Each structure stands twice: as C-alpha cells, then as structure tokens.
Amino acid sequence: MPIDLTQLIKAYDVRGTVPDQFNPQVARAIGAAFARVVVLPEAIPGEPPARPSVAVGRDMRDSGPELVDAFAQGLADAGVDVIRIGLCSTDGLYYASGALDIPGAMFTASHNPAVYNGIKLCRAGARPVGQDSGLVAVRELAQEYLDGELPAPVEGRGEITDRDMLADYAAFLRSLVDLRGIRPLKVVVDAGNGMGGYTAPAVLGTAAGLEALPLDVVPLYFELDGSFPNHEANPLDPKNLVDLQAAVVEHDADLGLAFDGDADRCFVIDEHGDPVSPSAITALVGLREVEREKTAGRVPTIIHNLITSRAVPDFMSAAGAKVVRTRVGHSFIKAQMADNDAVFGGEHSAHYYFRDFFFADTGMLAAMHVLAALGGQEHPLSALGEVYEPYTSSGEINSEVADVPAARARVVQAYVTEEGAGPVVVDELDGLTVSHWDSHPQWWFNLRASNTEPLLRLNVEAADEDIMEKVRDDVLSLVRATENES
Question: Residue 175 falls within a domain, yes or no?
C-alpha cells in the first residue's frame, strides 16, 4: 500500500502508527531526506569537517531501535555520520544537539499509545525543524523517495557510532541549578513508565555518578514500558495525576513531579496533593530567572503564550522584565525565545524553555528550579502556589462542533459587535481573544480552532470564580448552540 506522508509528518514533528504509517522503510526515507534538506546544506558554509554528524536518540518504545537503525542508514548513505545516544528524554536529545552543535533526531511519540512512534527533528544547537523551517521540504523529498527509490549510497558513506550522554546531560543541568544547599525535601516522581524513570535517577539521584542531593525521591512507575501499563503518560489529563496525588499525601511528601512520556513536560503537585498550575510555575521560575539576569546587569525578557494566566505578565513586568506574548505551540515560542534572546519562556501545557538550555524546553530543569525555590525557604509549596495563582481559570475546554466558523461567528457577534458587550479588547494573534481585563469585572477568554479536528478550544480566566464561570458558560452556550438555536 502506498504511504501518504501528509498523514505522518505534521506541522511540528513526525508522528503516526507503526507499522502502517511509520515503519523502517519510511524512517530510512526520512533520514535520507533530512540529510539532504537540513544536515548537508548547514554543513556547507565555512570549513566543515569531512562529514557532518547527527545525534539520534529514542524513548522506551519497542519500535524505537528498528526505526532508529533505518533512519541512521538513510543518513549514513547520504554521507552523514550518526551518533546514536540511545535511550534519552527529548531534552536529553536537545542537550546532545546543543552541546555537540549538530542536528538531532528524537524518536518518540510522547504520551501517545504504544502503537505510535515519531520523530522530533532539530537543527544544530537544538533549533527546531517545523513546517516553516524545513519539515515540509523533508516530507516532500521523503515522499519522492518512497514513490520512487532512494539514492544510491554516496562514496565516503557516513559512520554510525554509539555514545552515552546521560551523565553529561545530568551534570549540565546541575550546573544550571545548584540544589546542594537546599533544605531536605521529599519528592514523589511519577514517570508514567516513560523516560523520566531514566533521567530522574541520574539528575536528582546518583545513578550517573554525581554526588547525592538533599532529596528523598519516592519513585512511581520508573520501569520503562512503552505500553504505559499504569496510566497514560500525559499529565495534562487530570486522571493521570491521581496516583501521584495519592502518593504525595501517603508519603507526607513536600511535592510531587509528573513527567510525560518523553519527559520534556513536567507537572507539579503540592504537599496537599493539589496541582500547581503551569502558569504559576511559569511565574515562579520566571522570577528566578529575571532576578538572575538583573544581577548580571542584563534586562531580562520573558516569553509566554497567550493562554497562560495574566499573572505571568503581571509578575514579570512588576519585576522589571520585558514580556513577549506569543502564539500557542513550541515552534512559535522557540522562535520568539531566540529572536528576543529571552532568558525563559513558559506555556500552559507545562513546556518550559530556557536560554541556558539552547532556547529549548526541558521539564527536568523546570523541576529543579521548583525544588530550589521550595528548598530555599521554609514555606510549603501550597503557600508559594497561592502567591502565583491570584486569578481563577477554566482550563482548556474542547467542544466538538459541526461548523467551526459559524460557532466562532456567534461568539464574535455576542462579544465584539453587539452593543452592551462592554469595553473589550480583541485580538486574533492565535484564534479569538476577547479581554475585559482593564475594566471591572476582570475577565478574558481565548477561543482557538484545532488544526486537525472539528474542535474549538476555550480558555477563560477571571479575577474571581463567579465571573469566570459565567463567562465560561455563556461562551460555551454560544459555541455549542445549533444553527437553529442561534
């Protein structure tokens, strides 16, 4: 059966089911295309080495080794050396790309079920490869190879070698946040059978040969298993936090950390078992990075996407930072991070980006900042969380609608064009954002259409819960109304 790569290679990465959408033949074609579209052109300027190199890592999925081998063959046939770093988190691959200053490929499908796998591609220095930065060209060339045939191996074929970089990754993170002097903390870590079970013992413990930290780590589901036998490795879904919440209370822990399948996202639970919002974590970590920048005599810049809490720009601006608001999605925020030389960036989805980590996202480094902040004072995490969560939000609510433009139009008519809607500010940076924040009562909402499904995603925030619930329910009634009702 012919394979249509438009179903596999999406806007930001490669992801699909194995073997019908993604198999060794496809992986080899993508490797060959990646070499010619991204790797070899980057190696031309200046005086490059005899052969450029690519770092390749993988998560714990059973399909990973075979797909990595095929991808590596495609690269090597094009004259590219391959450094296989083996099992790693996605931020572990970003570290390899940044530290070695070479392009990279991470084989993972994050939290998707076991039947899935995929690739996150990056240029040298962990710079992203997305639809506007080479991924479309990679897809088109790989499709040509699949529809015809792969080029013959070049003379001077690349070499494939193996290199373990876990200890270097762990040491690098520890160089960015020093946890040695904090008060002793007990932390439950839920790896969800994903790569956090591999990286947490190295970074927070002594598995990589580093000295012990004042941390008592209680492991939860550290066994690597791409079938995710205990729960989906997606902390964004509240049902996947239940085990961690119970364990924090049971062990009388100071906090809990939950990582997704490839461990590039981190969610935080306080000592009562309550989630701390990613916006609050963005504010907490952001303030630490702002103060560090100011101490160094630099004007700090912080990036946040448009559906993080208004508390984020409030706190950052009050601390003297320049604040840049961006669209939802890692490719947009990474671009803004680099363009603005931003020290830190945060998203509502618990992706956290650091200039010192090659402008890339790393859940583990964010977790270390939380541990440093908590361990550097005597208050419990719940008290810190309250400081950084002054407003109330709905979270992201998805509505399946038959006619997305019509549903959106009903909201526009009610809030933007009708008299009596009040003094609102409207922008369309990413979907429709309507803000009543400069008047009372304070509220805002964002309504965004999914790129792949007939869904509208709603986020609402207000200064108090009653107003948030009213705006939420009013907008949802408009979104979910039938054409006859409207």
Answer: yes
The per-residue pLDDT for range 224-283, each reduced to its tens digit, is 999 999 999 999 899 999 999 999 999 999 999 999 999 999 999 999 999 999 999 999
Strands 432-435 and 443-449: antiparallel
Residue 484: inside a domain: no
Q: Residue 14 has what pLDDT?
A: 96
Mean predicted confidence (pLDDT) in 279-303? 97
**Which whole-number Å values give the CA distances from 401 to 78, 404, 416, 486, in the listed order?**
46, 6, 21, 13
Question: Nearest CA to 57 among 135, 120, 111?
Answer: 120
End-of-domain residue from the set 251, 276, 301 = 276
Q: Give the C-alpha separation, 267 to 281, whole Å.
A: 9
Which of 355, 388, 421 finishes a domain?
A: 388
If asked whether residues 181 and 157 sit together in one domain, one would say: no
Q: Is residue 82 classed as helix, strand or coil in its secondary structure? A: strand
Q: What is the pLDDT of residue 132?
A: 84
Residues 317 and 369 in one domain: yes
- Tell me: cis bond preceding 103? Omega within 30 of 0 counts: no
Which range marks the domain in which residue 421 is found? 392-479
Q: Rounded distance, CA 462 to CA 21, Å?
A: 43
C-alpha span between 426 and 321 (Å, rounded): 24
pLDDT at 486 over 70: no
Measured CA to CA, the distance from residue 261 to residue 227 in angstroms comes to 11
Asked whether the predicted pLDDT for residue 104 surpasses 60, the reply is yes
pLDDT in tens, 398-450: 999 999 999 999 999 999 876 555 689 999 999 999 999 998 999 999 999 98
Nearest by Cα to 80 from 47, 119, 50: 50
* E strands in 45-97: 53-58, 81-87
> Are the beta carbons of 78 and 151 closer than 8 angstroms?
yes
Residue 49 belongs to a domain: yes
Answer yes or no: is pLDDT of 342 > 80. yes
Residues 106 and 230 in one domain: no
* φ, ψ of residue 238 in degrees (nearest 5): -55, -30
Locate 26 and state its tokens. 């496809």
Conformation bin of residue 422: beta by default, left when phi > 0, alpha when psi is -120 to 50: left
Residues designated catalytic: 110
Q: Which CATH number goes with the domain that contains 315?
A: 3.40.120.10
Percentages helix, strand, coil for the chain (3-state, rounded to 5) are: 40, 20, 40
